[in-house]
Design brief:
The chain has 88 residues and is mostly helical. It has 6 helices and no strands. The longest helix is centred in the last third of the chain and has 15 residues.
Length: 88
């Protein structure tokens, strides 16, 4: 996976991995970004909910929207993007 990402960056010439991750995370609402940062910290839905003052079902909805907007299949991929953007 890492090799594929590095190859993509080298071929695309679109700038740094950080800039690309930041641009993609810019598609999220502020609240979705806060949830994504929780994912980047490795928090469970319950931990994210406690930190942000929302219920687990609400967090699950935000996580689903984050993954959908970013075109990802799982929360680990979103966590890597948050790290790539330098948000955690």
């Amino acid at each position: 996976m890492i090799k594929t990402v590095v190859q993509f960056v080298a071929v695309s010439g679109a700038g740094s991995l950080r800039a690309q991750a930041t641009e993609q995370l810019g598609r999220l609402t502020d609240r979705e970004r806060e949830v994504a940062i929780g994912l980047g910290r490795g928090w469970s839905n319950a931990e994210i909910g406690d930190a942000l003052g929302m219920g687990v079902s609400t967090v699950k909805g935000h996580v689903s929207r984050v993954l959908g907007k970013l075109g990802m299949n799982n929360r680990s991929q979103a966590a890597v993007m948050v790290h790539d953007a330098g948000l955690v």
